[in-house]
Amino acid sequence: MRKIARKILEKTSIEKNKDTKAIVDFIASPDSVARMIAATKAGKPALAGIVKELELRFGNCKGFPLNHDAPDKNAPNRRNIGWFVKYVMAEHGYAPISNSERTRIGADSGSKYFGSAAVYERVEKVPAHEIITQTAEVDRELTREDLWADPESEEYEKIKNSTREIVWKRDYLGLDYDFITKYLNVTGFKSLLSEADVQGIFNGTKIPSEELLDAIIGIFSFCQNFIIKNKRQYHEILGTSTNKALQAFYDCEINADDITDIWVYFSEWDAILDGRYNLISDGKDDEDREIQLDAPRFVIRLKDKTEYWFNGLTCGYAGQGCGGTQEVLLKLGVIEDDGNYVNAEIQIYRCLHYYKDGDKWTYHGEESRYDQNYEPLRGNADVSLFMYNNHLTISQSYRYSYRYNRSLEIEEPGEDWFKASLFFLGDASGIREVELIKVEEPDKRVLRAPSTDPSYQIVLRGMDDREVWLDYPFNDIPDEKRDNLYAFLTELGFTVPREVDNSGLFKVKKNIYGTYNK
Fold it and tell me: Could you tell me the residue ranges of all domains in the chain?
């Protein structure tokens, strides 16, 4: 929970249930504050900036309803919302204009339950908190203790699980620890963070506070704006963080009765393998280049085949993204609340497909294909998924440091390494062609790199114009040590001779490089 939200709950006597905490945290979030300040600058009540989403998300919640379906029409709850807004705005240097609390909130705000609210004005030039962008907030009272989640708090495990979201995103955007540290320290964290602190967050040894986690997600949201999207194959992906994905979902006003299917993914890989991805490229010079891919992790399909793609909503653990998924599925009536932060199937499964069986929603859950196939290779391989000359391609390297055993004898990859990517081509039966490539030969399609980096010398071609590139270091591994390679190719149904033939009186060296078909 954010620092301001904790202060509010410490000062109020209202019941501190799950819904109350969620509402306070929503109002105190930097994105909500930015929208309230924007409404204030437009001469409107601050609440007008967030009231539509506030009501959509919490209007009918059990612990703190805002609707009129009660003897007192839940008026005390709505008055408390005004107090929450007042406290948050005060922290950011704003106070209500005298006698403005009866200002009509306006039909354009989309409110159903609030008739009026206060208009604010800036009164503090240097407030305790200040929004510098919609994803960055300055806390001038910040201490080093505020950087880290309290292990005794109920949010600790949720934040710990949520850090999984940022690990893959950092790799995807190619941001190093030094850049992230400097960015954070100049956008609100007052040089309190060291590079070791940031590295510890991504290594899982340090658990950030919710404000710090939000700030890191904000960096990624900002940097993702500069990704070049190839308009020849582009589907808008809404939201870059959980909060922004939720806001986008409510802005879409999707009719639950029109929905036929919902897919949720932990890994972008699984969305890509299902055919949902964008090309990250300007489309001007794509030939003979790896084109990286961008994909959603939450997809809603309507009866007319329209699809809404979101990022920031995910499954497979118990973190913030899963909490967002839970909220959306509850709002659409797809699931029922089982009393947990997120329902069991959302935590357990890395891939979820919700669909209607008659008039009732049901689901199918399974593991991530990335996890299933590459978990055994986590130590000795680097794997990438990209587009190359209109071929969806997986590259799989054999790390240089694993090519020698403790006796400094060369070792080739094991059976699991060779078979890991076969699922991508429809297993052995789906492979129609194998090409063995000698590194010294010039070939634009094959990456050329120093010996310590991958050089893809085995290409497997299969269904739907897919390819698998394997880094097998022929130059390092002599023919007599290539038993796993030849066994693998034979199992695929390809007859490839040994490079060195010892069957006669004299050794005969054969050229094994070229293309083989079944």
Answer: 3-134, 144-224, 233-367, 371-517
